[in-house]
């Protein structure tokens, strides 16, 4: 689901282009909404294992399994990832809570393997326009999503990097129905009214991140931001809050 955006922002600090293979190990905690549009926040653990090869291939708990290359000002990326499931009851898995009792009767949205295609273009030094498309490879009925973002680097020196990002996320009809809609069957099982959202933009985001290098191998990354649901996603009966804060902090070791 939407937490892919958090993973992408964190992954930016976990691994970067290198002349040699680079392994990054890290861990921390994030505060996120239970589901997109929820009015409940939860703490979620961050486990970072990121292996970046000099030839562009990578394997990562946050970025998936993929390949990325830089061609002058243009960067391209393709990966296989995972979109987590959404449950209609609160559960605890591996020490982390997920799902929400407020969705009782809505059923489980199954997790799915996804194909990710992305590209970025450096407009000027420190300003990058990027886009990504996420396509389910399993449970295709969950639909496709995508997003565009404009990311600017405010500070970048030997020890610190501070960036801000403005983004917009889009979905097809199936994705909108899966995550923001209420079918006739679901309406009959719950107190929610039937709702059929349309495809299009469903979310705007703002994020700010700071990565501080403690030495050549250790670094700490912090991120804070918020997202705002728009159009039909904001009107959905299952999204009591159309804006949600996001925060995360984790430490990493690279060698």
Can you put this structure into words, describing what you see?
This protein is mostly beta strands. The chain has a single domain, classed as Porin, CATH 2.40.160. The protein is built from four helices and 14 strands. A twelve-stranded antiparallel beta barrel has the order 1-2-3-4-5-8-9-10-11-12-13-14. Strand 2 and strand 3 form a beta hairpin.
Briefly say what this structure is.
12% of the residues lie in helices and 54% in strands. It is mainly β.
Topology:
Blueprint: H1 4-14, E1 22-33, E2 41-52, E3 57-60, E4 64-71, E5 74-83, E6 91-93, E7 96-98, E8 112-124, E9 127-136, E10 145-156, E11 160-171, H2 173-180, H3 184-189, E12 200-213, E13 218-229, H4 231-235, E14 243-254
Antiparallel strand pairs: 1-2, 1-14, 2-3, 3-4, 4-5, 5-8, 6-7, 8-9, 9-10, 10-11, 11-12, 12-13, 13-14
N- to C-terminal separation? Answer: 31 Å
Number of strands: 14
Outline the low-pLDDT stretches: 1-6, 12-17
Name the beta content range: over 45%
| Major β-sheet profile | 12 strands, antiparallel, barrel
Q: In the CATH hierarchy, what is the class? A: Mainly Beta
Key terms for this structure?
single chain, 255 residues, mainly beta, Porin, 12-stranded antiparallel beta barrel, two-stranded antiparallel sheet, 4 helices, 12% helix
């Amino acid at each position: 689901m939407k937490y892919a955006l958090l993973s992408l922002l964190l992954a930016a600090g976990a691994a970067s282009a290198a002349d040699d293979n680079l392994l990054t190990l890290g861990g921390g905690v994030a505060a996120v909404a239970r589901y997109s549009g929820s009015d409940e926040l939860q703490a979620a653990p961050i486990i970072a294992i990121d292996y970046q090869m000099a030839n562009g291939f990578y394997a990562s708990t946050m970025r998936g399994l993929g390949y990325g290359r830089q061609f002058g000002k243009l960067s391209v990326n393709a990966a296989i990832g995972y979109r987590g499931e959404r449950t209609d009851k609160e559960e605890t898995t591996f020490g982390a809570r997920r799902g929400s009792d407020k969705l009782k009767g809505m059923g489980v949205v199954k997790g799915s393997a996804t194909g990710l295609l992305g590209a970025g273009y450096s407009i000027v030094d420190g300003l990058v326009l990027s886009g990504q498309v996420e396509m389910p490879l399993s449970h295709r009925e969950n639909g496709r999503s995508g997003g565009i973002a404009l990311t600017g680097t405010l500070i970048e020196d030997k020890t610190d990097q501070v960036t801000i990002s403005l983004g917009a996320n889009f979905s097809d009809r199936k994705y909108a129905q899966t995550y923001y809609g209420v079918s006739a069957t679901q309406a009959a099982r719950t107190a929610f009214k039937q709702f059929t959202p349309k495809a299009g933009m469903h979310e705007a985001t703002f994020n700010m991140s700071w990565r501080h290098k403690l030495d050549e191998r250790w670094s700490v990354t912090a991120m804070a931001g918020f997202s705002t649901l728009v159009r039909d996603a904001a009107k959905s009966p299952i999204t009591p809050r159309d804006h949600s804060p996001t925060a995360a902090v984790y430490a990493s070791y690279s060698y």
